[in-house]
Amino acid sequence: MVRKIIKIDAERCNGCSLCVTACHESAIGIKDGKAVLLRDDYCDGLGNCLPVCPTDAISFEEREALEYNEAEVMRNIARASSQLRQWPVQIKLLPLNAPYFKGADLLIAADCTAYAYGNFHNDFIKDKAILVGCPKLDDIDYSEKLTAILAGNDVKSLTVVRMQVPCCGGIEWAAKKAIEQSGKELPLKIVTITIDGAILD
């Protein structure tokens, strides 16, 4: 059938992924650093992705395309589930030793990140033990507790997800200090989220 559907200009796309977050139907994804329409039948043609694109890389076109499959899209949305593997998650409340730390990839996240980045569960929490905090609101030095967790458990790696705001530097600093004080050599990845929900390169 011929219908209205989005078109993405790869030359203009900067790969910011704002359109991916804006598309509630999961019709858009990132491949090789560029946004692409993954499935015609997941695109409803309403264009929630258009206003968020900073480079005007997305437009409408009328062309032959599969009919919008609302039933399957709704089933996929219903199947989306939490990736959380443990409780509690707040750094202040976490025990120093727990079964979920054994052989774990740890995620230390500033608590605003889960609200700013739409696909936080699948992109960051999945298969990780999570520690959440805000150095500004908690007004404490997390490094002592993080050091004890790293020193007392067989942790494989550490990922810090922070916001692009100065106060989030505290959570990154605490993670780096904890690795140093624990005496372990652990892979550390820092991911910074902008206030409009994109990953900062």
Key features of this structure:
5-stranded mixed β-sheet; two-stranded antiparallel ribbon; elongated; single chain; 201 residues; 24% strand; alpha/beta; 9 strands; Rossmann fold; Alpha-Beta Plaits
Descriptive notes:
The chain has helices at 18-22, 70-79, 113-116, 120-125, 135-138, 143-152, 169-182, and strands spanning 2-8, 28-31, 34-37, 58-64, 105-110, 129-133, 157-163, 188-193, 199-200. It is an alpha/beta fold and 201 residues long. The chain has a five-stranded mixed beta sheet with strand order 6-5-7-8-9. α7 links the parallel β7 (157-163) and β8. α6 crosses α7. The protein is elongated, with a radius of gyration of 20 Å.
**End-to-end distance, in Å?**
40 Å
Count of strand segments: 9
Task: Name the shape in a single word.
Answer: elongated
Roughly what fraction of the amino acids lie in strands?
Answer: 15-25%
How many domains would you count in the coordinates? Answer: 2
The level 1 CATH classification of the largest domain is Alpha Beta
Number of helices: 7
Compute the gyration radius: what is it?
A: 20 Å
Characterize the biggest β-sheet. Answer: 5 strands, mixed
Percentage of residues assigned to helices: 25-40%
Arithmetic mean of pLDDT? 92
**Any idea what the CATH architecture of the largest domain is?**
3-Layer(aba) Sandwich
Q: Might you state the CATH topology name of the largest domain?
A: Rossmann fold
Helix/strand order: EHEEEHEHHEHHEHEE
